[in-house]
Amino acid sequence: MADSEKALSTGIPNMERPPGCQEHRGSVPAEIAKHANDADEAMKAFAGHEGVLLELDEATNKRLLKRIDLHLMPYGPFDTLINVMGIKKDIHLTGDDYQWISSMFYFGYLAWEYPTNRLLQRLPLAKYSSFCIIVWGLVLCCMAGVKNYSGGLAVRFFLGVFEAAVTPGFALFTSQWYTKREQGTRVGIWFGFNGWAQIFGGLIAYAIAKGARLHGSAIAPWRIVFLVTGLLTMAIGILFLIFMPDNQLNARWLKPFDRRLAIERVRVNQQGIGNKHFKLYQLKEALLDPTTWAFAFYALTADIPNGGITNFFSQLIVSFGYTAEESLLYGTPAGAVEVVALLVCGYLGDRYGNRLLISMSGLVVAILGMILIVALPLSNNGGRLAGFYLTQASPTLFVALLSLIATNVAGYTKKTTVAAIYLISYCAGNIIGPQTFRPEDEPRYVPAGGFLMPAYQNKKKAAIRAQLGYTKLENQEWLDLTDR
């Protein structure tokens, strides 16, 4: 861990700063002075404490990190799955109807992504996120009542609308609470809950399907699955509302002094913990930053495979020669592959300070898996199933880039804008993905496999700060400035 993270010793206004933290004589850069009049929420923590010297040694830092992990990590996003437990027959899907129902989720996600990012900035973060999770679970329960194709389209659209807040919300939580050296691992843990959902969701679905086959059921098994997972999601949302703080300032499980220390420990990020005001210059900066569009291009191309495989994994496993019921059970190891890949790449990326290079290994593994699916004989069910498992390592680079938005993009309006563009591109890729799995291409889906396979500035800022004559404003870290 860097020296600045091992022992942060920072004076509050008018106090002498220790070596290495002095403010240099000279002029304040004009761009910083221009935008330094709307400070971050973090400044509230130090109001009335002027002249108090905060000491954050390594032992205290570790104690706080452990406590933060204990209270934040359990509330990862819970996701579920559409499967082939009779849904196509029961709601009378024909031709490419299933492809469009799969894609419709991402139309809702895309339509609401930028507005929900603005609301994440403007409203209390935990409370708005909780609302979206609870309503998402309620809409998921409504899927159990779908009778036809149009009803399925409507419910899937609103599922996308309310899930749109989850991923950017957790990225914001990460940037609020963790230093840059800690964020890759935590984003990997949170995103890995998708894998856990696939494991437990698959087991629940299999148990319900088998129970209904052996003992019968009053309603179709797939309807029971949506009711169970929807109610579970609502319960998680209620727990999130009760226990998740909007930021360090209202964390009930931290003592008042520890709240200030929890903010102080992320001073090194120079990003603050949130600003509720929309800033036009930050929006313009986000739109003109080439890095924003590099993120967007990757999300678009990489998530074409995600959209296809996520929505068609049960049908893909059935095409390997297994029954629909077996596909639910055999799909669960894929979730374990995702969890392990994200944890390993997240930890190693933080450990060695190179998230992108290390997370690219997941793409290599996924491409190998797709080659096995497409190239092995149809009779080799085990080999093709193993190939499917390997494809589930593919999210590693997407998650690494998401963590870099949390880490490297400063200014709350800019951060939420870049996250929105990244996830809008993610939606576009996921809309395209299901359309590559055409009914006429069963059971091998060769065109889809061939299409999916190839799809897979902070130093500058530091240099400016190191220049002679550069003057650092008092508490500049809390002024909601951007990374430029």
Give descriptors for this structure:
22 helices, mainly alpha, two-stranded antiparallel ribbon, disordered N terminus, 484 residues
Task: Provide a quick synopsis of the model.
The protein is mostly helical and about 475 residues long. It has helices spanning about 5, 30-35, 60-70, 85-90, 95-120, 125-140, 150-165, 165-175, 180-190, 195-215, 220-245, 255-265, 280-290, 290-320, 325-330, 330-350, 355-375, 380-390, 395-410, 410-435, 445-450, 460-465, and strands at about 10, 55.
List the helices and strands and how they pair.
Elements (H helix, E strand, L loop, with lengths): L2 H4 L1 E4 L18 H5 L18 E4 L1 H15 L14 H4 L6 H26 L2 H18 L6 H15 L2 H12 L2 H12 L1 H23 L5 H23 L12 H9 L15 H9 L1 H30 L4 H7 L1 H21 L2 H21 L5 H11 L3 H14 L3 H24 L10 H7 L5 H9 L18
Antiparallel strand pairs: 1-2
Helix pairs in contact: 5-7, 5-20, 6-7, 6-8, 6-11, 8-9, 8-19, 9-16, 9-19, 10-11, 10-15, 10-16, 13-20, 14-15, 14-20, 16-17, 16-18, 16-19, 17-18, 17-19, 17-21
